[in-house]
UniProtKB/TrEMBL annotation:
GO terms for molecular function: cysteine-type peptidase activity. GO terms for biological process: proteolysis. This is LGFP repeat-containing protein. It comes from Bifidobacterium thermacidophilum subsp. thermacidophilum. Residues 424-555 form the NlpC/P60 domain. InterPro entries: LGFP, NLP_P60_dom, Papain-like_cys_pep_sf, PG_Endopeptidase_C40.
Length: 555
């Protein structure tokens, strides 16, 4: 038996024939056998009955595998048969009414490996009998699987049941399921119960692709669309898709994470799953990465993937003296003596050039709150953003200055927020920069310095640059030279990189849109705007105008 990525590898055989089994309990003496416990999924009750999978076509005794060869069995009633048959003729009587079995190919044979019973093979199946289960046929690939796991499963308690896309059969301690694409596999206990509660083969897991595998501390079983893991302390949980891929690299339940303790949880933009010693997180852009311990705790306290760090982009890396892990918006470092701290922006770039914690600076000893960050052996000056940040998918703020194309229109207002500025401080920086432009002349398609000239969209650009917000394709050069960007007020009103809201939801620092115009909302129905002949403060409804929409650049 080999394990490959949590699968139990089985050689499937083509449909050939089935068998029938029996228990002898004579009038004066019964044969008793001690049965070994089943897999760990029967931790408390080794002989707990399997949960039966039922179907409206469960009685298939009249359906031959080969209807063109319905030859009848030998006469079951001979004196010699009755003398040696532990089933007292029950097997042959069954065969006489199920002529599709064909002729017998062997004598009735006693079975004592699981409990006293008997079997007899026929051309198209094997019939099994025991006093507790009566007579049932096992056929084809189900019988091939049954022969490998007879002692685990016990005697059949039903005949084969036809299912949508395959077949199954119930035994004393489990079931065997077969489909053309997956072959025959057995299920039992807690893993079978988990699967049944999710719709059997018609549910999202699909058919089993391997038998239950007993592993150290529990069991696992592979299905078409996931793997189910069980232990006594964690119960049964499925792992699937990208998370399963990372879990396999980490050696499944035998690796650093242990068994799963929850099913996969859907998140905004991805998914995560909890394990005994950590978690795995997945998003389409970052893939699956695991987190644990102090770094995971730091990340969780700052909002998980919805916080300013975003999703993890790499697994936790054990380094000399501690650990580190990369996220979308920074890298978090931990050591026992310094605790857990992130490094971001240009500070991180300089730190990387100095070989991170293994270089001259050592581990960070504080979060950066100003223009420099302290490390064990020195400080690094840099900019970036920690703490408050716009959600992913929206324009981001930063203490770094925005870089725009050079030339005559190459001016961008410097960022005036600190690296750890909160939302109110960012909004204040945005509006205070707009106030710097009061009285500046209105010039169509200008986004220049105060006193030089701006239009309505240019005022918004330069004021947002003061929050370190890189507006990408919105810049002074494109606004002047690109015909499409000459209408940036309208472009902004449709740009989903700003959070669009209703006018009734407006707050200080929001954008208010009109046909071909944009203004910055100050509160109390007042706006600051570039309107000919110059930048002014006015009522948002002045001149009987009516807003067409609103957006929130600082969320």
């Amino acid at each position: 038996m080999k394990r490959k990525q949590g699968h139990l590898m089985i050689n499937h055989q083509p449909f050939t024939r089935g068998r029938a089994v029996a228990t002898a309990c004579a009038a004066t003496m019964c044969l008793t056998l001690v049965i070994a416990p089943a897999s760990p999924t029967y931790a408390d009750d080794a002989t707990a009955p399997a949960q039966q999978q039922t179907t409206s076509n469960s009685n298939n005794t009249d359906i031959p595998d080969n209807p063109d060869n319905p030859s009848k069995p030998d006469n079951p009633g001979t004196d010699s048969d009755q003398h040696t048959d532990p089933s007292n003729g029950a097997i042959d009587a069954y065969a006489a009414t199920h002529t599709w079995l064909g002729s017998p190919t062997a004598e009735v044979t006693p079975i004592t490996a699981i409990e006293s019973g008997a079997e007899r093979t026929y051309q198209n199946g094997t019939v099994y009998w025991s006093s507790s289960t009566n007579v049932h046929t096992v056929r084809s690939n189900i019988d091939a699987c049954y022969q490998k796991h007879l002692q685990d499963l016990g005697f059949p308690t039903t005949d084969e049941m036809k299912l949508n896309g395959g077949a199954s059969q119930v035994f004393q301690r489990g079931q065997i399921h077969w489909s053309p694409s997956t072959g025959a596999q057995f299920t039992r206990g807690a893993i079978q119960q988990y699967w049944s509660q999710r719709g059997w083969q018609d549910g999202w897991l699909g058919w089993p692709t391997g038998d239950e595998l007993t592993v150290k501390g529990g069991a696992s079983q592979t299905f078409q669309h996931g793997t189910v893991f069980w232990s006594n302390s964690t119960g049964a949980h499925a792992v699937k898709d990208g998370i399963r891929g990372r879990y396999s690299v980490l050696k499944f339940e035998q690796g650093i994470l242990g068994f799963p303790t929850t099913d996969e949880m859907k998140l905004n933009g991805g998914a995560s799953q909890v394990f005994q010693r950590g978690q795995i997180h997945w998003s389409p852009s970052t893939g699956a990465q695991f987190t644990r311990g102090a770094i995971q705790q730091y990340w969780s306290q700052r909002g998980w993937q919805d916080g300013w760090l975003g999703w993890p982009t790499g697994d936790e890396l054990t380094v000399k003296g501690g650990a580190s892990q990369t996220f979308q918006h920074g890298t978090v470092f931990w050591s026992n003596s310094t605790g857990t701290h992130p490094v971001v922006g240009t500070t991180l770039s300089k730190y990387a050039a100095a070989r991170y914690e293994q270089g001259q600076y050592g581990f960070p000893v504080e979060d950066q709150t100003g223009p420099t960050q302290r490390f064990q052996h020195g400080s690094i000056a840099g900019c970036g953003k920690v703490g408050y940040q716009n959600p992913g998918g929206f324009f981001q703020v930063s203490s770094c200055n925005v870089s725009v194309p050079g030339g005559a229109f190459g001016y961008a207002s410097p960022s005036r927020i600190s690296i750890n500025a909160n939302r109110d401080q960012v909004v204040n920086a945005f509006i205070s920069r707009a106030y710097d432009y009061l009285g500046t002349r209105y010039v169509w398609d200008y986004a220049m310095q105060p006193g030089n000239g701006v239009d309505c969209a240019g005022l918004v650009m330069q004021s947002l640059y003061a929050t370190g917000m890189n507006l990408q394709d919105y810049n002074p050069t494109a606004h002047w030279y690109d015909p499409w960007h000459s209408h940036d007020a309208n472009n902004m009103s449709n740009d989903r990189r700003f959070l669009h809201i209703s006018v009734s939801q407006r707050q200080r620092g929001d954008l208010i849109f009109y046909p071909g115009h944009v203004a910055i909302y100050l509160g109390n129905d007042q706006v600051i705007e570039a309107m000919p002949p110059r930048v002014r403060i006015a009522n948002m409804y002045a001149g009987n105008r009516h807003p067409t929409g609103a957006a929130r650049p600082i969320i």
